[in-house]
Amino acid sequence: MASDLVSCLIDPATGVATLRFERPEVLNALDLATARAFAAAVERVTRDPDVRVIVLSGAGRAFMAGGDVGSFAAAGEDVAAIVHGLLDAVHPAVLALRAAPAPVVALVRGAAAGAGFSFVLGADVVVAEETAAFLVAYDRLGATPDCGGTWFLERRVGRARAFELMLTGRRLTATEARDIGIVTEVVPAGELEARGQALAEAIARGPTHAFGRFKRLLDEAPSRRLAEQLEAERAAFVAGTGTADFREGVAAFLAKRPPSFRGR
Predict the structure, then answer these.
(1) Whether residue 195 is found in the same domain as residue 229
(2) Each residue of 203-227: b (16+ CB within 10 Å) or e?
(3) What is the mean pLDDT of residues 2-16?
(4) 25, CA 20 to 30 Å: which among 58, 71, 165, 212?
C-alpha cells in the first residue's frame, strides 16, 4: 500500500515498516491531505501484528519543515477549521505510534521543524545526518507547538531547556540535539538510510512485546509514586512470562546460544 503523500512499505522478511513523507518539493510540509494520509498509514502498520519496527522518514532534503503555512494563509478566516481537521487526523496517529509495541525509529535528513520536530520527538530512536537541523519554529508564526511537541520535548530535555527552545526558536545542529538527548545517533552524510535500515532490522529481531512494555513503563513512570511503579514493573514482568519470546529467551540463556525472538 502506498500514497502519493505518505508511502508505506512493510518488509515481511524483517517486520520493518517504513513510512515516508512524500512532498519533497515543499520540504514535506504537513497539510490536511498529508495528515490524513499519515494517519491512514499509521493505522495500517500499528494494526499489523507482524510489524516489529516502524521507521519514519522524509523524501528529499528534509524530514519535515513543519506545517504547510501556505494552506493556513489560503484558508483565511477558516484557518481554525483547517487546524482542527489536521489535528483530528494527527492525534490518533501520535497516540497509536506511542501505544504500539513496535519501537519507532526516525531517520532525519535536513530540517525537522514544527510538526516535523514533534514527530521526531515522539520517536523512540532518532538517527540524524550530521547536517540535520532541529527547531521548534512555532514562535515564528505566533503559534504554539502541536502534535505532541510540548509533551515529548519536556520529557526529553526538561522544562527549562524545552521552554528556552520554544521561546527563542533556536536551531539545533544534529550534534547539539544528540548532546541534550533528542537524537540517539549522528551519522555522516550519505549513510542515513543504510544505518537506519541496519538498526531497524537489529531492533526487529528483539522481543517486540517486551519493547512495548518498556515504552509504557517509561511513559507512565513520571506520573506514579515509586510504590506504584514497582507494581507496574511487576505486572509487566509477569505478563511477559506468558509470551513465546520469554520462553525462548530463557531457553537460549540456559543453552548459551543467541535467542531467536518472533515478536510473540
Answers:
(1) no
(2) bbbbbbbbbbbebebeeeeeeeeee
(3) 92
(4) 165
